[in-house]
Design goal:
The chain is an all-alpha fold and 205 residues long. It contains 7 helices and no strands. The N and C termini lie far apart (52 Å).
Length: 205
């Protein structure tokens, strides 16, 4: 009897809350999954996957990274234009926030393109061209295209593509490093990237 009473009291005071599945969450998960699957199809059937530089001068993940980066920059353009249309002061703040997270991202994208087989000049040109896509997103928003509500799902789609690139190409390449010192540097770089993302989120959320 006492055990039943204890159990009853515990149940009243300690209820386990389950995360509620909303339609938006389902759509976001679906967009991430779709991005991952489409990037898989692109690499599998449009470009032959290779890891040897002499057989594959430019690795497929470099092109996939450009696609994901282009989508991401398109969304940045939408966000900047929408903020300026709402309030000029807000627009400047949002622009600074976007620039703050774009600088480390573009450095990372440049490194990925170099590692993927692009020359430094070619990597700079392609990075610059994908950055210009932000202007397209801004123009779409400025001329009244109703695409702002869909930016969340576009961002989730791009995230799925970046997850695919990291999981299938970048992380396996990191695991090929056997030297303890270099592996430790890789760990520090990964940790620094996570800390930087957290700091940017805290400052510009």
């Amino acid at each position: 009897l006492s055990w039943q009473g204890l159990h009853r009291n515990f149940s009243r005071t300690k209820k386990i809350s389950r995360p509620r599945l909303t339609v938006q969450n389902i759509f976001i998960f679906s967009a991430v999954s779709l991005g991952l699957l489409i990037f898989f199809v692109l690499e599998k059937f449009l470009w032959r996957h290779c890891h040897e530089r002499e057989k594959c001068p430019v690795h497929p993940f470099a092109y996939l990274n450009l696609i994901g980066d282009g989508i991401h920059n398109f969304i940045d353009g939408i966000i900047i234009a929408a903020s300026f249309m709402s309030n000029q002061s807000l627009g400047f703040v949002v622009t600074l926030a976007v620039v703050a997270h774009e600088i480390p991202q573009e450095i990372g994208d440049f490194s990925i393109l170099i590692y993927g087989g692009f020359s430094k000049t070619k990597a700079l040109i392609y990075n610059f061209l994908t950055a210009l896509i932000a202007m397209t997103g801004g123009l779409f928003t400025f001329f009244g295209a109703e695409i702002l509500p869909q930016t969340l799902y576009l961002l989730a789609f791009a995230a799925g593509g970046f997850i695919y690139i990291a999981a299938t190409d970048l992380i396996p390449e990191l695991h090929r490093e056997r030297k303890t010192y270099n592996s430790f540097l890789q760990f520090l770089a990964l940790l620094a990237g996570l800390v930087l993302m957290w700091l940017l989120k805290q400052n510009f959320a």
